Protein: Diaminobutyrate--2-oxoglutarate transaminase
Organism: Amycolatopsis minnesotensis
Amino acid sequence: MNIFETLESEVRSYSRGWPVVFDRAKGSYLYDEDGREYLDFFAGAGALNYGHNNPALKQALIDYLSRDGVTHALDMFTVAKRDFLQTLDDTILKPRDLEYKVVFPGPGGANAVEAALKLARKVTGKESVINFTNAFHGMTLGALSVTGNSMKRGGAGIPLVHATPMPYDKYFDGAYPDFLYFEKLLEDSGSGLNEPAAVIVEGVQGEGGINAARLDWLKGLDDLCKRHDILLILDDVQMGCGRTGPFFSFEEAGISPDIVCLSKSISGYGLPMAITLIKPELDVWEPGEHNGTFRGISPAFVTAAEALRVYWSDDELEKSTKAKGERISAAFKGIVETYPEANLLAKGRGLARGLEFADGDLAGKVCAAAFERGLLMETSGPDGEVMKLLPPLTLSDEELGKGLDIISESIKTVLHK
């Protein structure tokens, strides 16, 4: 047995589907210890939107470390934090007419979600939160309570309470008007629905199966929350930082949620970092009421600020992401038409794309076949039925074409079997 099997917990997952030892990474590629290259359409589960070891971000990080810049600072003021906050305001918030204060809740996406839930309950004095079918918000207890996957919820070991699921967009395939059930329960004094403090939603459900909410649906949800005095939490942990094209997945819906959760690619370099954006009037924390040791990871602030300057000072990355997404969409449409008997369904927005198989095993087999051909992809959805693509936003047209060729070949191999 190797050291991984001897010492590492059985809870590991990705290494089971990709049983090699990776050593280096550059741009859109990972390399194993034997030097074989793998085109990465996984990108750290969306934590590497700008690719591996992005040279501009790497140089900023090296320069900062070389001058003995502060590495760990809790919530103390630092030059690195100031630069990040100023750059975030200048390149992201002000150009979009968004006014938020920034909470540094801890290093991961679940930390951002926990802070959002905790603050919503503090502000409103209410306990209940509305979540959606097939949602995924993290693995800590609060985040799990608003997550849909039964296997992940079961790992909590205790009842997960104070959350009520509602149907996500297209859950009933358009058979009912949007929010018919939700609004009926809110307006009926006999429904038994506890008055909610907040609604938490993803613009595109990544782990839930690349379910992209219609922009009109998101707008309708925002309107509903305003009518009923409910806070709207937008979890953009995986789909923010340009994954769908615009910086935020909700921008094109014309809404401004009360609270926004960001992590994964916010650091730009794969370093741990998360932020929770809150409307100024919601900033009712007492000093130290929500804290943690790893809130001030300065190297992540450095790469985050540089990523914003390099990629979000204009709209070139947004346009490129949308164009590449449309190329994937067209390729997937061709695959769906080529195999009508397989009942495939193309899904997604921007560079968050999925191909849903009627048989969940087939999606896994396609990903395994792609791995054999040097391409990394994962599955998502409640039964692993969706082949999921999250390539770096910075991948070249040639790399995208190469990946699509491998996918087409892998699907052909699996379906012909």
Summary: The chain has a mean pLDDT of 96. The CA atoms of residues 157 and 288 lie 29 Å apart. The radius of gyration is 21 Å. The first strand starts at residue 22 and ends at 26.
